[in-house]
Amino acid sequence: MLRLIQNEFLKLHAKKSMYVFIGVLVLLELAAAFAIKPWMPLAEKFTGFLSFSNTVFVPIVLLTTIFGIAIASRVVSEEFQTGTIKQLLIRPRKRITILLSKYFTVVFVLIFVCSIALLLSMAIGIVLFGRGKEELTFVMLLKIVCYQILPMLFYPTVSFFLANFFRKSVLPLIIALFIFFLEGVIVKFLPMMFKKYLIFSHLDLAMYDSNILINGGAMPPSLDFNFTASLLFVSLHFVVLLIVSSTLFQKRDVL
Question: What are the coiled-coil residue ranges (predicted)?
């Protein structure tokens, strides 16, 4: 599988989209830093680079999730549309191995992009805002980042599943983006008895953290759930989506 993942990385490397996206994130971080610094007093806005990194990490996750949805919707569909899937299937590899290599490539790319963007935001923050003493510590920032990985990977997983259900990449992209942008509205208007069993209510595990700087004041959807129960609930959705994707991929005809 490692060789297959390497091949997928080479395909993304050839398209340059990953590097363009990282460049866009860097430009946005620089624009945010230089836009904020002249207008906002340092004492009121950022006392150091950690608070700056924490602030810009929110749009980083948002844009990276959208980028992941786009990649996940294409990584399988384009193989069938261009006919290159035949070159993969004639090799002595199981279909499920091929499919999982594509999924793990998407996961690794998103984590890599997010990590690079975070490190660069910290570097920019150190240069422009210094290393002043803050309430937010480096460990707390890492916890916030780790909590955001789960929702960042969930929506691309949904897009990946839809890409195996439909034959073209446009419809999975549209549906996944629709779910991503409207999940807040869906959660808000559902009755509480249904809301606590909705996957969207459990994606942000930071709500179980006791530190308000980390949880942002968010509360669990129900007393029936705790951190472990929500994590298992979300993990079950990941497993089901991947199992169904694998089943669809293995039954898909290659013309």
Answer: none
